[in-house]
Amino acid sequence: MSLIELLEAIKARGGRMTRTRKIVLETMLSSSRPLSASEIVSVFKGKKTPINRTTVYRELSFLITNGFVHEVRLIGKPSLFELAHQHRHHLICIKCAAAKPVVLGKHLDSHEKKIMRHEKFKITSHSLEFYGLCEKCQ
User: Fold this and answer.
1) To which H or E segment does residue 108 belong?
2) In this structure, is residue 33 part of a structural domain?
3) What is the pLDDT of residues 38-68, one digit of tens each?
4) Per-residue burial over 41-78, b = 16 or more CB atoms within 10 Å of its CB, e = otherwise
5) Whose CA is closest to 69, among 115, 16, 9?
6) Residue 137 domain-assigned (yes or no)
7) Overall domain count for the chain
8) Is 32 contained in some domain?
9) How far apart are CA 6 and CA 21, in angstroms?
10) Domain that holds residue 59
């Protein structure tokens, strides 16, 4: 999904397109990994655009609530955020909090469909993270 498509989808749901929201989305689109709120704030500082952490969390909350962003929760560490259409599964280091996407193939999709049929449960999203120590922290 491109920035223009994201902006159009937000407008279609009645959302406004603010400069802050646009920078948050651009930042997430250009990243190959999930980002923390602090990392997003630092992008604003680099662009010499004043912003506080509360505003970033408010934008992230709006984007999560409306299905545009997915939160990756870490044990004892700040959450990470990624665009929902870029949904990935991750290897997360419990020491340094590095998050690396991992490809699981088509098997997970087939298991999800079996679960929906067997349990008569409509799955709208899922989260799958593997926790351990990265090569650097071992």
Assistant:
1) helix 107-119
2) yes
3) 999 988 887 777 788 899 999 999 999 988 9
4) bebbeeeeeebeeeebeebbebbeeeebbbbbebeeee
5) 9
6) no
7) 1
8) yes
9) 11
10) 3-132
